[in-house]
């Protein structure tokens, strides 16, 4: 399919949604995350904005790789945090595992997300699949 859809809100703190099914979708998700942090008032410090983009990139990449090949990303701002939520259709839940240091098998992303986020949650959806949510400090 190779399509990506972005819905940017018109309000400074309104939600942003990105749907994707390809590597191009990952790039669009990163761009949307950067635009989202750029619209926040007060703006997060550059390190926190970079961390936010990194977590978005990791979660949508994992959704494409392990979650059925499509994702829906939702970004939302709260007074003291920024929320990242990624839906995918895969039944497999993220798990901590020993990273493959040869570079062939991954295993670095989910521990990194858990280290960077204030909290993470995984919710199974009634229609199938799951939502992975990370809350990051603003």
TrEMBL record:
Lineage, opening ranks = Bacteria, Bacillati, Actinomycetota, Actinomycetes, Kitasatosporales
Q: In this protein, which residues make up the domain named Histidine kinase/HSP90-like ATPase? A: 26-134
* Domain of life, per lineage: Bacteria
Q: Which InterPro entries match?
A: Anti-sigma-factor_SerPK (IPR050267), HATPase_C_sf (IPR036890), HATPase_dom (IPR003594)
Origin species: Streptomyces globisporus
Keywords from the named record: Kinase, Serine/threonine-protein kinase, Transferase
- CDD domains reported for this sequence: HATPase_RsbW-like
Which SUPFAM superfamilies does this one have?
ATPase domain of HSP90 chaperone/DNA topoisomerase II/histidine kinase
Q: What is this protein called?
A: Regulatory protein
């Amino acid at each position: 399919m190779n399509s990506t859809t972005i819905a940017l809100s018109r309000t400074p703190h309104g939600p942003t949604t990105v749907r994707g099914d390809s590597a191009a979708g990952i790039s669009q998700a990163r761009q949307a995350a950067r635009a989202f942090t750029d619209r926040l008032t007060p703006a997060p410090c550059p390190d926190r904005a970079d961390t936010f983009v990194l977590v978005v990139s990791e979660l949508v990449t994992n959704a494409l790789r392990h979650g059925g090949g499509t994702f829906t990303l939702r970004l939302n701002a709260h007074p003291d945090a920024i929320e990242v939520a990624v839906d995918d259709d895969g039944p497999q839940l993220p798990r901590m595992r020993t990273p493959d240091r040869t570079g062939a098998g991954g295993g670095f992303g989910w521990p990194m997300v858990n280290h960077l986020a204030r909290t993470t949650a995984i919710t199974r959806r009634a229609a199938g699949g799951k939502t992975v949510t990370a809350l990051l400090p603003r």
